[in-house]
Amino acid sequence: MDEIPVSVLLGALVVLLLLSAFFSTSETSMMALNRYRLKRLVQQGHRGAIITAKLLAKTDKLLGVILLGNNLINAAAAALVTVISFRLFGQGEFALTMGTLAITFAILVFSEVTPKVLGAAFPEKIALPASYVLSPLLKLAYPIVWFINLFVRALLWLMRLKPEQSAGEHHLGMEELRTMVLEAGHFVPQKHKSILLNLFELENITVDDVMIPRNHIEAINIEAPTSVLIEQLSTSHHTRVLVYQNELDNIIGIIHVRRVLHQAQGGELDVTLLREILREPYFIPAGTPLFSQLQHFQENQERMGLVVDEYGEIMGLVTLEDILEEIVGEFTTHAPSQTGLYRKQEDGSWMVEGSSMLRDLNRKLQLKLPLDGPKTLNGLILEHLEDIPEAGTSLKIADHTIEIVQTHDRVVKVVRIFPPAPEKQ
């Protein structure tokens, strides 16, 4: 060793530091690698990804060969620095202290911190090429790694830890998926992001939140005169209409408007035949989550259903279109009676019917009314005031000023919603 020039020893030290850096950056990049991106590359047949996936399937052995190589190299580098220090400063405590400080600084900067920062920043670019080196190294050092892991497993057994049970894939929950979508940035288009977020909300939204209220359901009374029935059917804005007998709670079926108008072209309508072509109504229990109801519509091949409470009384109507609007956004094909619920005024305020659903108001008018209580604007106002208000009464809910315009039969019929005041700088 004394005959080897210092320059050669310094060159060997640099090589050892680079090898140590390789193991450090490989370890960090392997652990920081996106497992789902890796699966995608494996499915595409990427050879480096396949090798990397096999290494990550045996994490204990992978870490064993990386740490084995890293520690051996660091120990060799420390011994080499000791020799260099003795050659430069002579044998003594000063030389040993200087060598220890120098190698500690060099390993921290060049072989630990910097490589691991790079490995965490560019895991895919480093881990996949590194797998070509780590895989044969693992095969060569397998007996040593296996022997070391014997002691590791024994120590874990004494600590009553079983990493095998938790070493599998990390499954993402709904909140984790939501966070991934929100942080996707420009990788996911804004419209796609909105649809995905709406899908996550389907389990938290029930049919009560999106149903057409009872007093807005379009239906015909089969006991009405024939002329009235023909007029109602010919002016209907829907392809399917509910049919009841005497009262709305007594729904007897659903008819397809086109089929009825076809036989009523002569000016007469056969009520007996009308009863024969009725389809049985489909009922939905109140509180059913939208995602579950979407599946029920698909399984039962239905497009609309009546929401009923625990007493069997009709609360409202839900269609497949209502659920789809919660996912992809609002469609423009609405009946005039529905589009007239919101009328914008010259001062920027909105005239809104009290029976409007709060979710619709928030979505269409960009409001922030609370959704954890009543479902309609009328219910929200009555709950807030704990009394039946008179026309001209004003209140403030969620920074929105609301003025009662018209009331009738203990129900708020029309209100005016003012936009929130701009925040002062």
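Next protein, fold it too.
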Amino acid sequence: MKSSLRERFGPRVQVQGVDRVSSGSAVRILLLPATDAPPRTVDAADALVRRHMTMRQAHRAMTALAETGRAIAELPMVEDRATLEADLAACGITAVPYQAPAQVDVKAIRERTGLSQEDFALRFGLDVATVRNWEQGRSSPDTASRILLAVIARNPEAVQAVLAA
């Protein structure tokens, strides 16, 4: 049964005067409960807000975590991933990087399947010229393509099943 964040974890608490980090990089993370005990959502929301997430976004993330057991958060400014992970771990939340692979070796993935460029492109719904360009370094896969290639590398049958549906 779904319940609101308030019903599950108590009354509303205002977070005021949050000291935000002064520099860092954007990070997308998957949030998961670290234990069976309820996470300290107010403290976790504070940790997210310190990394320049809005209070509304932090509340949505904590609500999703409470309702589904997972949440995806995009933090605009993270000073250090280890510090963020430690702050969230102290709140009973595990933070896992959630992003497309930075690079993929298209040729190695294709060779593991035992297919020619033409057969690889045909089997996975790609253009053969695009596969050639990726392998020869003339172009690089965009984010969606890197995700597709990562899925092909781990579970080519899943991609084939989707294409055959």
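About the second fold: Residues 55-68 form the longest helix (14 residues).
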